[in-house]
Design brief:
Largest sheet: 6 strands, mixed
Low-confidence stretches: 389-401, 473-477, 499-505, 653-660
Structural class: alpha/beta
Mean pLDDT: 83
Shape: elongated
Number of strands: 20
Number of helices: 22
Radius of gyration: 42 Å
Strand order of the largest sheet: 4-3-2-10-11-20
Length: 660
């Protein structure tokens, strides 16, 4: 079976693109798809986004210096976006501007916008002279949009801003836009189900599921760490993301899939083996591998010779005994007197004549088998095969054959080691004055010192030696040779049954492999069963069915027949079949259900926003700085791709007499 390898893709720092005079002169709009996982930035005239980077910044902590040092503390360098080459090295220093799917940390957002504008090559002073088309979450709070507008207008002095929903842009980028459809957006932090009727977004019946790619990655990460605790550090979040996108798939019927994987043969044929990085510690030995093999052959040859010699000795004894028994039988046949026969049988511990016949038959059979064994051993002594390689310890994880024996040996070894540790600790305690062991030793010595010199008979009784052992320097019995020999014997047996990877394992990398079986289905199943991480929300299929139930039968038919899936998780294999199966089960008999996965779902939002920025309608949807100053920071123009505008309620001052 093919063993897969982790790619461990490292980000490449973005180049600074050329800021041509045509771009500056024509004030080409800048498209920013501000996703909670990835940010995509490019010009409205570009066919692809010029910059794609993770919406993350890494801000190392400032090192604390001692009070007496004169050195000026250096400000650590901030890493933004693709400047973070090794994301796992700074995993605990990462920050994002998002809280769920809403922008709340605008200090981080400013750093990310600086990164985007500088790598686009914009070199104008104190302003970005281009309109901005920025995506936002469904039903984004006014406070988040207000702070974003303040940042863009006050800090970057942009001429105009337009906001739109990423999933609506992605839906309208679809090559066959429909008047009515049900948009299923599978995002990084959450999923949205957005109904569109008669080319109008129905926000009242839009629903959000607070489970997304982030939760699947962390769930898969913890599953694998629990399955392989030895490799917990090697199983990183980045590798869990790689498994999600390259290995995982959605099960059409999760319960049936679990039953399949319970079959050992199915498991062996379908498991995905993924190699973790490892290093082999080469140990130089004076004895070569060929010499070790020759030594094993010589030992096996000697063992065969010893066994053959013992068989020949037993054969000679049996032949001598059967000769005597045959003499007794002949004596009986010649008619010897009864007393002589009984006395002779008693000497050979035989009860009667029938028992004699049975003993002779048994000895004949035994002699024939021994002769056959001797003949077979003599013929094979020169044709010995090389002893089979010992079974690796990693193939014994089923705990079938030698596990019980190994457990007993380990317990005995641990018992001896515990005794030695206790003696060592007692010895250390006796060297200290304030310990209980030291005080007890001094008490016994002081009692012995009080005795009269004339009656010094210490050592005459057996119990005196117990006192001597108690106050001895070693604090009890010393490490005996028998214990040390036992430890060496246990180590040798355990080494025999648990061979080292280097000496006996033909493929040492097998110990560093991940076997991805049912986990490839269990991770993506989280969006259909959020209760697996303790969430009380319904799954994706149940939410879709609930949203459909909010409409009349005719509208339900329109929406169910045109379900469009977009977002980063839309490319998971098996997702379309799973959604189709679940929706057919909740729809009326012979009802039309159609599921469509948008091509290149991760970039569809940026493509849709770019197409909108190239249309004549775009300039009419811009909020200029003058409008921003007159209407307020939360104001924006509503269009078919945007959220509805609901002004925040103003506080009303009520004048009245104060009651004291």
């Amino acid at each position: 079976m093919e063993v897969l390898q982790f790619i461990d893709t490292k980000t490449v720092p973005d180049i600074v693109h050329t800021y041509s005079p045509e771009l500056k002169k024509n004030a080409v709009p800048i498209i920013i798809d501000n996703g909670s996982y990835t940010c995509r930035v490019g010009w409205a005239t570009s066919s692809e986004p010029l910059i794609q980077f993770r919406n993350l910044i890494a801000k190392p902590r400032r090192e604390r210096l001692k009070k007496d040092t004169i050195e000026i503390p250096q400000t650590p360098q901030l890493q933004v976006g693709n400047d973070i080459v090794n994301i796992e090295a700074v995993r605990f220093q990462l920050k994002t501007q998002f809280d769920r799917n809403v922008v709340t940390h605008f200090e981080a957002q400013e750093h990310l916008l600086d990164y985007a504008f500088s790598h686009l090559g914009i070199n104008t002073e104190d302003c970005v002279p281009h309109p901005i088309l920025c995506t936002e979450a469904v039903l984004n709070p006014n406070t988040s949009r207000q702070l974003m507008s303040e940042l863009l207008f006050e800090c970057y002095n942009v001429p105009g801003i337009c906001y739109g929903i990423d999933s609506i842009f992605g839906y309208h980028n679809y090559h066959k836009p429909m008047e009515s459809a049900l948009i299923v957006n599978l995002g990084y932090q959450c999923c949205h189900i957005i109904p569109v009727l008669n080319n109008q977004t129905n926000f009242e019946n839009t629903r959000r599921l607070n489970t997304g790619g982030f939760h699947i990655v962390n769930f898969l990460h913890r599953l694998l760490q629990l399955k392989y605790p030895v490799h917990a550090t090697a199983i990183t979040v980045s590798r869990a993301e790689e498994l999600l996108h390259n290995v995982c798939r959605v099960a059409v019927d999760y319960r049936e899939e679990l039953k399949k994987w319970a079959n050992a043969e199915f498991y062996e044929n379908n498991v995905k083996k993924i190699q973790l990085p490892f290093t082999v510690n080469t140990i130089t030995s004076a004895v070569t591998l060929e010499q070790q093999k020759e030594r094993k052959r010589e030992l096996a040859r000697r063992l065969i010779e010893i066994n053959a010699r013992k068989r020949e000795e037993r054969l000679a004894e049996d032949e001598e005994k059967i000769g005597q028994l045959l003499d007794i039988k002949e004596m009986i046949e010649l008619g010897a007197d009864r007393e002589t026969i009984e006395r002779t049988l008693t000497e050979f511990q035989i009860k009667n004549v029938l028992d004699l016949e049975k003993t002779i038959f048994t000895l004949n059979t035994k002699i024939e088998k021994t002769k056959q064994k001797i003949l077979a051993a003599s013929s094979n002594i020169d044709e010995m095969e090389e002893p089979q390689a010992k079974q690796s310890k990693f193939s014994k994880m089923a705990f079938e054959s030698d596990k019980e024996m190994q457990l007993v040996l380990l317990l005995q070894k641990q018992e001896i080691l515990t005794k030695k540790m206790v003696r060592k600790q007692r010895k250390q305690d006796m060297a200290k004055r304030r310990t209980a062991a030291g005080q007890e030793r001094m008490r016994i010595i002081s009692q012995l010192a009080r005795k009269e010199k004339g009656n010094d008979d210490f050592g005459m009784r057996d119990e005196d030696w117990d006192i001597y052992k108690t106050i001895s320097k070693d604090g009890g019995d010393s490490d005996s040779e028998a214990e040390n020999e036992k430890l060496l014997e246990f180590d040798e047996i355990l080494r025999t049954h648990e061979p080292s990877e280097l000496g006996d394992c033909s493929q040492p990398g097998e110990a560093h492999q991940l076997h991805i079986g049912v986990e490839m289905f269990r991770g993506p199943e989280l969006i259909f069963k959020p209760y697996m991480i303790g969430s009380q929300e319904a799954g994706l299929s149940e939410v879709i069915a609930y949203v459909l139930s909010l409409f009349n039968p005719d509208d339900q038919l329109k929406l169910a027949s045109k379900v469009v899936v977009t977002g980063g998780l839309a490319d998971l294999p098996g997702l379309r079949d799973r959604l189709l199966t679940d929706l057919i089960s909740v729809r009326p008999f012979k009802s039309t259900v159609n599921i469509t996965i948008i091509n290149n779902a991760s970039l569809s939002s940026w493509y849709g926003a770019r197409n909108f920025a190239q249309s004549a309608e775009f300039m009419d949807t811009l909020v200029t700085k003058k409008m921003y100053q007159e209407m307020g920071a939360e104001y924006f123009k509503v269009h078919k791709y945007s959220n509805p505008f609901n002004a925040s309620p103003t506080s009303i001052a009520v004048e009245g007499d104060l009651c004291v």
